[in-house]
């Protein structure tokens, strides 16, 4: 097969070709490895998607469901003996002694590590500009951001530098970059994928999931990474197997359109694409209803208390003692801690640690953390009420298309608003997928579908039917 | 609003050194975010139970059986400074 033929394959097709003997694992791996390595070595004029790229094609071995398909993995997943730095200077050069469960499961199904992907530092950001290893560029327009925090994963898949990638989503970090890069991103039900070996940001929200070219590949990756893990006490046994989505129609499916997330604050081109997709859904047989999520407009405020609070606790471990960077020549232990953290963390991470520490401090705990936890309850109740009337909820994924590099770095609040439509689902712990719904001004727009906990099969089916009807052409982003 | 002294207090709690020229921007940015978050005060929440986690885990206990841990040299391999078989740090009262 020619490299162009290989690049045209979905992961399902590539695995099938390997199985049939028309493509070798080495050929597939080397095609992507060479492309990823070229991007890595031209960091100034490339996309800067990667923080590490594998050196050579692995040795062929026994048949496996994923047939040796190369996998790009977000930097924050621990991979034994391979740099895992969560986009941070404080973990520069860190080589973990073990591998994250989600990655181990994909290895077990036959996936091979291709590269580690660039990300916002500790997954805090919506543009992948907060990386100690430099910003990532959007393959649709190199002067624009790929979204974040899984921006390296999203840009790599969109540009054809990796066949698929693993990301994480805390408040939208899989779905928003998938939307801005014109690919598919799925945040599973909280607890369905083990968090063991993920360098933690906000533990009650962090969830691993796939970034892929199409819905079928997202289902395939999810199928092989799900499941209860004794090393993550919050992981759950998924109640059913994930099956390959095959739906072509939406007959009998009721979709809810929440007024609160589909009006004010969403840019015109995004709304236009969203409404066109709704019309397509009707043509496919879906029934559309307006629903209300009255507390959704408060989700962002609650999130920016809860996530920083959890992060301020989780990131206490970076103290220069056991791994990573240590500030030199500190006079005493306390000075070593404070200077290590001053030098090692970037501006946004410091901001969130400060915000979280403040929200948990004496005298403020009830007013901030306590209130935010109560709002979280109301948001989960809003979704439960909505799902008693509709099967799935649809919204735009992000309020805008990809914005210019540097456009929002000076205004944290403007950056946080990127998560307006994705954070409510994160707080409720429910699954949501973003699929490309078209272009606005030549840039991709994402369409988000959310469902009740463990409704992934229904979600993937609906996404599959819509994907077919939309017929999005991602070819322009391939480099 | 959060002022310079409060920023210094929180930074001490967070074990984070901030240079003189970082204090004012930090106070301004935290205040802007806290102003936004203050919208939560508009909600009536007295009778609402807090949610810390969406997954209800009760009795998540495993049998208490000894298992192998990381070998000492592997655990120490990433440390900035090591002495013998432990992590080396500056004295607390140098």
Summarize this structure briefly:
The complex is a heterodimer of chains A (479) and B (94). Chain A is of the alpha/beta class and 479 residues long.
Describe the model:
The complex is a heterodimer of chains A (about 475) and B (about 90). With about 475 residues, chain A is α/β, with parallel strands linked by helices. Among the domains of chain A are: about 250 residues, Amidase signature (AS) domain (Amidase signature (AS) enzymes), CATH 3.90.1300; about 80 residues, no CATH class. Chain A contains 15 helices and eleven strands. An eleven-stranded mixed sheet of chain A has the order 1-3-2-4-6-5-10-11-9-7-8, sandwiched between helices. In chain A, helix 5 packs parallel to helix 6, helix 7 runs antiparallel to helix 15 and helix 9 packs across helix 11. Chain A is globular. Chain A starts with a helix and ends in a 9-residue tail after the last helix. In chain A, about 65% of the residues are buried. Chain B is built from three helices and two strands. Chain B is flat, with a radius of gyration of 22 Å. At the A-B interface, helix 9, helix 10, helix 11, helix 12 and helix 13 of A face helix 1 and helix 2 of B.
Query: Would you tell me the overall average pLDDT of chain A?
Result: 96
Oligomeric state of the chains in view = heterodimer
Number of strands of chain B: 2
Radius of gyration of chain B: 22 Å
Largest sheet of chain B, order of strands side by side?
Answer: 1-2
Q: Kindly identify the CATH topology of the domain at 1-42 in chain B.
A: Histone, subunit A
* Envelope shape of chain A: globular
* Overall helicity of chain A: 25-40%
Number of helices of chain A: 15
Ends distance of chain A: 19 Å
CATH architecture of the domain at 3-248 in chain A: Alpha-Beta Complex
CATH top level assignment of the domain at 1-42 in chain B: Mainly Alpha
């Amino acid at each position: 097969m020619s490299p162009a033929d290989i690049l045209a394959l979905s992961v399902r097709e590539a695995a099938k070709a390997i199985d049939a003997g028309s493509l070798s694992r080495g050929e597939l791996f080397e095609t992507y490895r060479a492309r990823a390595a070229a991007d890595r070595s031209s960091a100034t004029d490339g996309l800067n998607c990667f923080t590490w790229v594998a050196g050579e094609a692995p040795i062929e071995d026994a048949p496996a469901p994923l047939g040796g398909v190369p996998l790009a993995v977000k930097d924050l997943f621990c991979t034994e003996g391979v740099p895992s730095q969560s986009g941070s200077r404080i973990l520069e050069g860190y080589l973990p002694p073990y591998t994250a469960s989600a990655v181990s499961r994909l290895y077990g199904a036959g996936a091979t590590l291709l590269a580690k992907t660039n990300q916002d530092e500790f997954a805090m950001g919506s543009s992948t500009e907060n990386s100690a290893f430099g910003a990532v560029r959007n393959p649709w327009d190199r002067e624009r951001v790929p979204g974040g925090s899984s921006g390296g994963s999203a840009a790599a898949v969109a540009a054809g530098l990796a066949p698929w990638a693993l990301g994480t989503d805390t408040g939208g970090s899989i779905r928003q970059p998938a939307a801005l890069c014109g690919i598919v991103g799925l945040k599973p039900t909280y607890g369905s994928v083990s968090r063991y070996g993920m360098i933690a940001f906000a533990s009650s929200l962090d969830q691993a999931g796939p970034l892929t070219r199409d819905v079928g590949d997202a289902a395939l990756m999810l199928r092989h990474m799900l499941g209860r893990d004794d090393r993550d006490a919050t992981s759950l046994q998924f109640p059913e197997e994930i099956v390959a989505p095959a739906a072509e129609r939406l007959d009998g499916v009721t979709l809810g359109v929440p007024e609160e997330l589909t009006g004010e604050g969403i840019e015109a081109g995004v709304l236009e694409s969203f409404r066109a997709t709704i019309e397509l859904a009707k043509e496919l047989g879906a029934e559309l209803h307006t629903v209300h999520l009255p507390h959704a407009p408060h989700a962002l405020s609650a999130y920016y208390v809860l996530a920083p609070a959890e992060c301020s606790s989780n990131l206490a471990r970076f103290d220069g003692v056991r791994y990573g960077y240590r500030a030199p020549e500190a006079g005493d232990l306390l000075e070593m801690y404070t200077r290590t953290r001053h030098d090692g963390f970037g501006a946004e991470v410091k901001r969130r640690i400060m915000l979280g520490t403040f929200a948990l401090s004496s005298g403020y705990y009830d007013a901030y953390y306590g209130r935010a936890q109560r709002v979280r309850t109301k948001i989960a109740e809003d979704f439960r009420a909505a799902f008693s009337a509709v099967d799935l909820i649809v919204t735009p994924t992000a309020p805008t298309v990809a914005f210019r590099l540097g456009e929002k770095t000076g205004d944290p609040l403007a950056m946080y608003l990127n998560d307006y439509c994705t954070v409510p689902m994160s707080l409720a712990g429910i699954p949501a997928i973003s699929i490309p719904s078209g272009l606005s001004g030549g840039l991709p727009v994402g369409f988000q579908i959310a469902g009740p906990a463990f409704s992934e099969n229904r979600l993937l089916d609906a996404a599959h039917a819509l994907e077919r009807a939309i017929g999005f052409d991602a070819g322009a982003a391939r480099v | 609003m959060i002022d310079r002294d409060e920023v210094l207090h929180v930074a001490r709690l967070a074990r984070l050194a901030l240079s003189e020229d970082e204090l004012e921007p930090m106070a301004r940015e935290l205040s802007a975010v806290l102003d936004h978050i203050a919208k939560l005060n508009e909600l009536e929440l007295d009778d609402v139970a807090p949610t810390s986690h969406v997954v209800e885990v009760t009795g998540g206990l495993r049998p208490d059986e000894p298992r192998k841990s990381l070998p000492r040299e592997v655990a120490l391999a990433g440390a900035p400074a090591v002495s013998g078989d432990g992590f080396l740090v500056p004295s607390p009262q140098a």
